[in-house]
Structures are given as structure tokens and as C-alpha cells.
């Protein structure tokens, strides 16, 4: 057994097909397939489900992923201790709903790079169901997801809470809504509204908030980052998690501001998911950095979270 074979299996899992893995590895698809067949014979386990539409990791293969991660991590530590650098850089794939995490994720990645300069991080933006599915399949290592307070995280994933907050109204300083101490639903309906598409927690919350009523006009988009950019361009107001607004560059320079909603608001949560309890050192370090930075954010946030 060679460590390269284990790396090949991890790459197929992350990219979802032999073809894409062979392109990434600069290895012919027949050679990659034969290397994995040899690994299957040695382990006595069918690692891939081979179909006409392509190959993907089997259920048995997914169960072996945490053990494979341990082996590859141990090899890295051995080579680093001997002063030799591993020829293949590690890669972490992190999924995010991109609804509330950019101001947390970017500084966490910067801190991670200081201790793991050779590990590549791929950030994959998707909606909640997509991140959960890819985590379960093993094609993502970590996932950041926003939930409403009464949502239950899926079984089978290890979950750590990072942030808690409340919905707020995000507007430009020159918007009439910015002059209000608190914004009612009636106030919102009188102005253009920028909303997240179906599949996001904030989309479900806004549906509950408006109770079928229709705003003067509306736009729909993916994620809080685009919502904030559209608000900054004067296209309307948006209802977003407070932690997606606090410390955002647009908020710091005064381009956007936030106002509380007049009625009771539910609690919102950002959690980090991972599939396995046993993970590589790099994955554990990124997880720990996110938890630490989230704790610092929660402690320093000026936004009142007591409204219930």
C-alpha cells in the first residue's frame, strides 16, 4: 500500500468523480482507476461505486475516510519532523451557506495559513441542503450553516455552535428606514426588499415575517454578501442576521447600517459541522480557530441580542 493511493481516494471523494480527480492529479484516468483497484484488493473492500455515469466513493469507503486522514496526517508529521516536506499539498474543502460567515471565515483562514502554509483551502458556497449532503458524502471536510432557532441539525454530523444572533434590517444611511428606532413589517412592505432565495434559513424566516404579504418590489439573490452589496447600491433593504452585518467592511465605513425589527425575533445560529470525530491535524486546527474567533466575536459584538 502506498500513501499516494490513499491520496487518490481522498481526491476522488472530494471532487466526486474519477475524471475530475485524474485531471487534478495530472494522472491518466486508467492509471488512477488501476491504482484504486489495487488498493481495493489489498484492503478487501470495494471503495468505489462504479457506474456508467461515473464513479463515486462507496459507503464502505466513506467509513474508512477518518482512518485514511489519520494515516496521511501521520505521514506529514513524520516528514516534517525529518525536515522533508511532503510532495503533495493537503487540501481542506469547507462548505458555507455564505449567508452569515464571511466576516468570520476570512480572518480564520488567514490565521490558519500562518500555521499550515502548504495546506490549500477550497471554500464552496452552497445552500443549506447542498452543504449537508456534501458533508454526508465526504466531499466536504467542514461546513458552516445558519439555522433558525427551532431547526434541528441533521443526525450523523458532529456539530459545534459558533455564533448566535437575531435578524436585523440592513439599509443605507440615507434610507427612510434608517431614521427609525425600530422597523415594522408595514415599514418594510413600503420599500423595495432584497431577499435570499429559497433554501436559506433567512428566506424561511422572511416568509414567516411577511405572512404572505408582498413588498412594494423585491429582488432575490444568493447569500448575505450579495444582499449587502445590493443594499449599498441603494436597491432596497434586506433582513439579515446581525452577525453578518457587524464588522462587515461596508458597515465599518458607514455605507450600510442596521436597525432592529419592532416585533419579537427568533434566535439565529451559525454552526460548524464535520462528519467524523477523528480528523486530521489541519482540519482540527481550522475548526479550533473558527471556534475561538467566534467566541471573540460573540464577546465583542455591540448588537443587542436580548430581544426574544
Question: Mind sketching the topology for me?
Answer:
Elements: H1 3-15, H2 18-25, H3 29-43, E1 48-51, E2 54-57, H4 59-81, E3 91-96, H5 102-115, E4 120-125, H6 128-137, E5 142-148, E6 158-165, E7 167-171, H7 185-189, E8 193-196, H8 201-210, E9 218-221, H9 223-232, E10 237-241, H10 242-245, H11 249-252, E11 257-260, E12 268-274, H12 281-300
Brief descriptors of the model:
five-stranded mixed sheet, 12 helices, alpha/beta, 44% helix, 12 strands, 308 residues
Describe the structure.
It contains twelve helices and twelve strands. It is α/β, with parallel strands linked by helices. Strands 4-3-5-12-6 form a five-stranded mixed β-sheet, with helices on both faces. It has a five-stranded mixed β-sheet with strand order 9-8-10-7-11, sandwiched between helices. It is elongated.
Low-confidence stretches: none
Annotation field: number of helices: 12
Distance between the termini: 57 Å
Give the neighbour order of strands across the main sheet.
Answer: 4-3-5-12-6
Percent of residues in helices comes to 40-55%
Short description:
By secondary structure, the chain is α/β, with parallel strands linked by helices.
Amino acid at each position: 500500500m502506498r500513501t499516494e493511493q490513499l491520496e487518490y481516494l481522498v481526491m476522488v471523494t472530494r471532487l466526486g468523480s474519477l475524471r475530475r480527480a485524474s485531471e487534478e492529479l495530472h494522472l491518466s484516468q486508467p492509471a488512477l482507476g488501476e491504482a484504486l483497484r489495487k488498493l481495493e484488493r489489498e484492503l478487501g473492500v470495494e471503495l468505489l461505486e462504479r457506474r456508467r455515469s461515473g464513479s463515486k466513493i462507496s459507503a464502505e469507503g466513506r467509513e474508512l475516510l477518518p482512518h485514511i486522514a489519520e494515516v496521511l496526517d501521520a505521514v506529514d508529521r513524520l516528514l516534517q519532523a525529518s525536515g522533508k516536506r511532503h510532495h503533495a499539498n493537503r487540501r481542506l474543502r469547507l462548505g458555507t451557506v455564505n449567508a452569515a460567515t464571511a466576516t468570520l471565515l476570512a480572518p480564520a483562514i488567514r490565521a490558519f495559513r500562518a500555521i499550515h502554509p502548504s495546506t490549500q483551502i477550497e471554500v464552496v458556497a452552497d445552500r443549506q441542503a447542498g452543504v449537508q449532503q456534501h458533508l454526508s458524502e465526504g466531499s466536504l471536510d467542514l461546513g458552516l450553516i445558519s439555522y433558525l432557532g427551532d431547526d434541528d441539525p441533521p443526525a450523523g454530523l458532529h456539530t459545534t455552535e459558533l455564533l448566535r444572533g437575531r435578524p436585523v434590517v440592513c439599509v443605507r444611511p440615507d434610507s427612510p428606514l434608517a431614521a427609525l428606532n425600530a422597523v415594522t413589517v408595514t415599514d418594510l412592505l413600503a420599500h423595495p426588499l432584497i431577499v435570499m432565495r429559497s433554501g436559506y434559513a433567512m428566506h424561511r424566516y422572511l416568509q414567516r415575517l411577511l405572512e404572505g404579504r408582498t413588498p412594494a418590489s423585491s429582488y432575490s439573490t444568493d447569500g448575505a454578501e450579495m444582499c449587502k452589496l445590493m443594499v449599498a447600491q441603494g436597491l432596497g433593504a434586506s433582513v439579515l442576521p446581525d452577525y453578518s452585518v457587524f464588522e462587515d467592511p461596508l458597515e465599518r465605513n458607514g455605507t450600510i447600517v442596521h436597525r432592529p425589527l419592532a416585533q419579537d425575533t427568533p434566535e439565529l445560529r451559525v454552526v460548524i459541522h464535520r462528519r467524523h470525530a477523528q480528523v486530521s491535524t489541519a482540519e482540527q486546527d481550522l475548526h479550533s480557530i473558527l471556534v475561538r474567533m467566534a467566541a471573540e466575536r460573540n464577546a465583542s459584538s455591540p448588537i443587542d441580542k436580548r430581544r426574544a
